[in-house]
Design brief:
Blueprint (H helix, E strand, L loop, with lengths): L3 H11 L23 H33 L3 H25 L13 H12 L2 H29 L3 H27 L9
Helix pairs in contact: 2-3, 2-4, 2-5, 3-6, 5-6
């Protein structure tokens, strides 16, 4: 799942006006391009959110399926099964809207970070799998929640924003469930209790 820092960096780049065009002697001045406006930045939020939502949910489903197979604690297997059912429902509802949002040229099913995390989960010792999976779920759901909040506040597509607002409580509940599950598999909560 894409990092919030990457999202913010891309948004900062999108909001940077182009450098002024220098004028040369004996030439008519060349009009500078207008700086991207709020509308352009909001469309960029939609584009970035679509990429994060698609790749993040793909990663969520792949990792949850692996957890159902490799997990040893009943809490982990139960968590993973719930993630499969609910993320499939989320994507079934969002995909018709997300398909109309132009995304980057990258058509990777998973982000590079998620590909590496998946390879690590596949290779980790069985005794370490549950804790590593759940701690990754806490981080992944924090990132997904940040993406949902950015879209809800700054996106332009009204249908997409409506779906985001509808599903945001589910993402928050997944985060809380991941934190609760971490307590059962020896993971330390990243939140002060």
């Amino acid at each position: 799942m894409i990092s919030l820092v990457v999202i913010l960096a891309l948004l900062a780049q999108a909001g940077t006006p182009p450098p002024p065009v220098p004028m040369k002697e004996n030439r008519a001045p060349v009009a500078a391009q207008p700086a991207p406006g709020k509308e352009q930045e909001s469309a960029e939020v939609d584009r970035l959110f679509a990429a994060v939502a698609i790749q993040g949910s793909n990663a969520e489903l792949d990792m949850a399926e692996l957890a159902v197979q490799r997990g040893s604690a009943n809490e982990v297997k139960g968590f993973a099964s719930k993630m499969i059912a609910e993320h499939k429902g989320l994507m079934d509802e969002m995909m018709p809207v997300l398909q109309h949002v132009p995304t980057s040229s990258s058509s990777e099913r998973l982000s590079a970070a998620d590909q590496l995390a998946m390879l690590h989960l596949q290779a980790v010792k069985p005794a370490d799998f549950d804790q590593l999976y759940i701690m990754g779920q806490i981080g992944g759901h924090l990132q997904m929640l940040a993406a949902f909040e950015a879209e809800a506040e700054n996106g332009t597509d009204p249908q997409l924003k409506e779906l985001v607002r509808k599903w945001m409580p589910t993402i928050q509940a997944h985060l809380q469930l991941a934190v609760d599950t971490a307590k059962h598999v020896g993971g330390a909560s990243p939140f002060k209790q």
